[in-house]
């Protein structure tokens, strides 16, 4: 079958048009997603400030914002999907660790222990590339302090723990699990922080950085 140069050019144009269309759709979706998430966290921040102004106490604060907080934080799992399908050029593993750590904080700390309120999340979606140098460590410190504050309650209540003997013949202590989670920040935080620094350098200076999943 004869294949002309014109046919090849037409196919290349069609392929390029499809790539441009996908790129445009991806950009539009990411713009919408980032605006929506930033707006969501701003709504949470304003709700918290209004609560404090009206009542002058943090008691009952979590209950008033719990549904919105859990929705926006859980919806952040979409970011892992962005990396997996390639519309965001960064590591799936790094993004997964960052997102899942915050979901863990919301569902297994603040949702289970109503006395604790996770505030460190509010700066995340509005973080810009220079402020994150300070705000990222502040967020991590907030997470660690929240877990630390939850430890006495977890130990007293035995929450999520399984004691022997039981029908599954399995022992699990949530208290020590949380301590292990806190210790895991020691090796993980430097990796995540320097990853963010590399991302900042790529955006600000146009450097090409190849991210690895291992």
UniProtKB/TrEMBL annotation:
Keyword Endoplasmic reticulum recorded: yes
Class of enzymatic activity (EC top level): lyase
Any Pfam family: PTPLA
Subcellular location per the Swiss-Prot or TrEMBL entry: Endoplasmic reticulum membrane; Membrane
Membrane topology summary: Multi-pass membrane protein
Name of the protein in its database record: Very-long-chain (3R)-3-hydroxyacyl-CoA dehydratase
Catalysed reactions, as listed in the record: (3R)-hydroxyhexadecanoyl-CoA = (2E)-hexadecenoyl-CoA + H2O; a very-long-chain (3R)-3-hydroxyacyl-CoA = a very-long-chain (2E)-enoyl-CoA + H2O
A molecular-function term among this protein's GO annotations: very-long-chain (3R)-3-hydroxyacyl-CoA dehydratase activity
Organism: Channa argus
GO BP terms, alphabetized: fatty acid elongation; sphingolipid biosynthetic process; very long-chain fatty acid biosynthetic process
Record-level GO cellular component terms: endoplasmic reticulum membrane
Keywords: Endoplasmic reticulum, Fatty acid biosynthesis, Fatty acid metabolism, Lipid biosynthesis, Lipid metabolism, Lyase, Membrane, Transmembrane, Transmembrane helix
UniProt function note: Catalyzes the third of the four reactions of the long-chain fatty acids elongation cycle. This endoplasmic reticulum-bound enzymatic process, allows the addition of two carbons to the chain of long- and very long-chain fatty acids/VLCFAs per cycle. This enzyme catalyzes the dehydration of the 3-hydroxyacyl-CoA intermediate into trans-2,3-enoyl-CoA, within each cycle of fatty acid elongation. Thereby, it participates to the production of VLCFAs of different chain lengths that are involved in multiple biological processes as precursors of membrane lipids and lipid mediators.
Keyword Signal part of the UniProt annotation: no
Domain of life: Eukaryota
E.C. no: 4.2.1.134
Family: Belongs to the very long-chain fatty acids dehydratase HACD family.
Transmembrane segments: 26-48, 131-154, 174-194
Alphabetical list of PANTHER family matching this protein: VERY-LONG-CHAIN (3R)-3-HYDROXYACYL-COA DEHYDRATASE, VERY-LONG-CHAIN (3R)-3-HYDROXYACYL-COA DEHYDRATASE 1
The protein's annotated pathway: Lipid metabolism; fatty acid biosynthesis
């Amino acid at each position: 079958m004869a294949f002309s140069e014109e046919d090849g050019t037409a196919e290349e144009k069609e392929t390029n048009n499809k790539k441009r269309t996908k790129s445009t759709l991806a950009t539009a979706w990411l713009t919408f997603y980032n605006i929506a998430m930033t707006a969501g966290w701003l709504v949470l921040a304003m709700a918290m400030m209004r609560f404090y102004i009206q009542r002058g106490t943090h008691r009952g604060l979590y209950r008033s914002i719990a549904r919105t907080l859990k929705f926006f934080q859980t919806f952040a799992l979409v970011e892992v999907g962005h990396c997996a399908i390639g519309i965001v050029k960064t590591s799936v593993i790094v993004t997964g660790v960052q997102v899942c750590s915050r979901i863990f904080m919301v569902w297994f700390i603040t949702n289970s222990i109503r006395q604790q309120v996770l505030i460190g999340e509010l700066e995340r979606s509005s973080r810009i590339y220079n402020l994150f140098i300070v705000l990222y460590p502040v967020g991590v410190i907030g997470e660690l302090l929240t877990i630390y504050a939850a430890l006495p309650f977890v130990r007293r209540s035995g929450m999520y723990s399984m004691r022997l003997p039981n029908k599954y013949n399995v022992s699990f202590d949530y208290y020590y699990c949380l301590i292990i989670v806190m210790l895991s920040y020691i090796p993980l935080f430097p990796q995540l922080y320097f990853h963010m620094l590399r991302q900042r350098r790529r955006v600000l200076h146009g450097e090409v950085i190849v991210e690895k999943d291992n």
